[in-house]
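Entry 12.
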Amino acid sequence: MSEKFTSAKARPLSGIRVLVGRARHQAGALSAELRKRGAEVIEIPFIEIRKPRSFHPLDAALKRLSSYDWLIFTSVNGVEAMWERMNELRLSKSSLRQMRIAAIGPATQRAIEQRGARVQVVPQEYVAESVVRSLKNRVKGQRVLLVRAKVARDVIPRELHKAGAHVDVVEAYETAVPRSSRARLRAALKNPKTCPHVVTFTSSSTVKNFLELLRPTRSTKKRYTALAEIQLASIGPVTSSTLREQGLPVDIAAKEFTIPGLIAAIERAFATPP
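Predicted 3D structure (tokens):
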């Protein structure tokens, strides 16, 4: 096996520029794995995680946590926000040991288990619809607490309510467009030396915020012209659906709806034929 072939196999994304738009504090893991594979990573956050305007609904739910049968998390951000709030309120974590906990995917599961709680349910597919399929026959007559972002899809509360559960939804954080990214993003797309070959999208919010950052003052069409030669990579079906709804193609789609799955999909897209 030649040295050149071995190097290409070890660094399959060598020479590929990838734009990572995750929130600043979460970009590291994706960026590090892409760099290991030889990619040139450009980090410009499309999303910013903020505290909710009021903690009152979350605090009220946490103070009666023992009254719930199920606790559902749909993101690592929700896990981090809830534990931070429990520490702030000096609430005991003991009630978590009696609860059943569902996590939307393996990253969320790890975040929960790193904090000493056990996760009973992780769905086969890491989307809200699969959470519902995993729980709908187990929650009739039970109290469910869903911890999530201010703006989120209503699939889980709506469908679990239909299944006979009493569902409380509390806002643990909110997302915003990081205005400081606007000039950096536009500059990166204009410069041939920094224009990415791939832009990664890890949620519907990253898609919408990306387009908001590119939104022109006059011509709507103008915002898409810079994307003509760029491949858009999606982490899962909900994100892909949002891209298509916004008139954008899904050039690369993860088969497993996780960060490793997204990286694998990008690798496949740039794999050199044997």
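Annotation: The radius of gyration is 20 Å. The first helix runs from residue 3 to 10.
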